[in-house]
Design brief:
453 residues, alpha+beta, Creatine Kinase, Chain A, domain 2, 6-stranded mixed beta sheet, 16 strands, 19% strand, binds glutamic acid, binds magnesium ion
Length: 453
């Protein structure tokens, strides 16, 4: 018997005249891939899923098959969609999409499934008495492709400039309309510091929906720009001499019913509760390892430099834009509702399920151990002396993907949360990327990150 959500998805597909429905998964390399079913078989495919070779979770972002035991040419899993995510795609004719879980042939969550990993962390937080709401704050760079095949920024406008609004007006309007048509509420827009760079933020949602939205957001931005003859790069550092693209994670903890923001305490420092600080302290404590999940591409480490407002140290502070975690000032009309923390050390090359799942696991560990984040940082942490940073327990992030992966491999909490198969396949895929890019030059790195996420 089809579930009500499945029935609704099929009816919606029929009403909208959809022909192909994409089943989207995001792999260990952070790339969203999928297979589509014809609408005729949609109902049965929702129940059965679409087959996928197990090898795809050993594939890196260069389509190189890395050596993960058990992920070779033999073996299948099923991409089983979550019909609640059914979305008619405003940027592709007669097409719709759903995000999927990877399941074994007998229907269990596959141990290498990133979305199931996030679900497990959500359940662990629920068992500890809270749910997490989150939003990825997207930045991206609009570019044109020249006759020689090289990308150039759309414009040379300065930060927040109305000239930048003018050059990007038509495409931004279409992107906003497309997000709205998919039920994704846009919050703010402005041209950012980098040439051709845009920031477009969306409303927060419960963690699983926030990760699903990041998938739909990336798809939408890239596809709508393409229809305008433009390339939208969500890569962390698409142009080496320009500001990088962050995908900061705003997060807050709520009670089980989602009505009370448990991060908020009017008597707490900067309005943050004890629970909020424990969670933040857990994230900071695990950050050198967590970075392997939130900033997981070779290109990510070109972005995470001091003085670029991307964060480069494990510091936190109120409205400190060089802190790994910023406590944003709240708004007078809704102090409780607008209380949140912002992890700046995240970018859109991250698989959003792995990034958010890792964030939840790290934060939950801080809650369980009642960790404290120490003193807030009120200046750019890069401007402290080494001794001052040491006294404040502020450390520089790993400066390469390889270093971050070593931290992850040594982090017992995050490794246990991922589970052996997901951890092993992720580390192997990412080490494969590191090795491949290490042999090549910067131009190769940019080319292969520019239009992938
Ligand atoms: N573009 C900056 C980054 O790489 C963020 C700038 C800001 O929004 O404060 O994260
Ligand atoms: Mg920004």
């Amino acid at each position: 018997m089809p579930t009500p959500a499945a029935r609704r998805a099929v009816a919606q597909a029929r009403r909208a005249g959809v022909r192909l429905v994409r089943f989207l998964y995001t792999d260990n390399g952070g790339v969203t891939r999928g297979k589509a079913t014809h609408v005729e078989s949609l109902a049965s495919r929702i129940a059965d899923g679409i087959g996928l070779t197990v090898a795809m979770q050993a594939m890196n972002m260069l389509d190189q098959l890395t050596p993960v035991e058990g992920m070779g040419p033999v073996g299948e899993i099923r991409l089983v969609p979550d019909p609640g995510t059914f979305t008619v795609l405003p940027y592709a004719p007669h097409a719709a999409a759903m995000t999927v879980d990877m399941r074994t042939l007998d229907g269990a969550a596959w141990e290498a499934c990133p979305r199931s990993f996030l679900k497990r962390q959500i359940a662990a937080c629920a068992a500890a008495g809270f749910m997490v709401r989150a939003a990825f704050e997207g930045e991206f760079t609009l570019a044109v492709k020249g006759a020689d095949g090289a990308f150039a920024p759309l414009d040379q406008s300065v930060c927040f400039s109305t000239v930048g609004m003018t050059t990007a007006a038509a495409v931004m309007d279409d992107i906003v309309a497309a997000l709205e048509a998919q039920g994704i509420q846009v919050e703010q827009y402005y041209p950012e510091l980098g040439h051709g760079q845009q920031e477009l933020s969306i409303r927060h949602a419960p963690a699983l929906a926030a990760a699903d939205r990041q998938v739909f957001y990336r798809e939408t931005v890239r596809a709508v720009a393409y229809r305008h003859g433009l390339y939208a790069s969500l890569a962390p550092k698409p142009f080496v001499d320009q500001a990088g693209n962050g995908s900061h994670v705003h997060f807050s903890l709520w009670d089980a019913g989602g009505r009370r923001n448990l991060t908020h305490d009017p008597r707490g420092r900067y309005g943050i509760s004890a629970l909020g600080y424990h969670f933040i302290a857990g994230v900071l404590d695990h950050l050198p390892a967590l970075l392997a999940l939130t900033c997981p591409s070779v290109n990510s480490y070109r972005r995470l430099q001091p003085h670029f407002w991307s964060s480069a140290y494990t510091a936190w502070g109120p409205d400190n834009r060089e802190g790994a975690i910023r406590i944003p000032s709240t708004f007078a009309s809704d102090r409780a509702g607008s209380t949140n923390a912002e992890l700046k050390a995240c970018d859109a090359s991250a698989n959003p399920y792995l990034a958010l799942g890792g964030l939840l696991a790290a934060g939950l560990d801080g809650v369980k151990r009642k960790l404290e984040p120490g003193e807030p940082t009120m200046i750019d942490p890069a401007n402290y002396s080494d001794a001052e940073r040491a006294a404040r327990r502020i450390v520089r992030f790993p400066t390469t993907l390889a270093e971050a992966l070593d931290h992850l491999a040594a982090d017992r909490v995050l490794m246990a949360a991922l589970g052996p198969l997901l951890a092993r396949s992720f580390l192997t895929v990412k080490r494969g990327e590191w090795q491949a890019f290490s042999k090549e030059d910067t131009a190769f790195e940019i080319k292969h990150h520019f239009w992938k996420f």
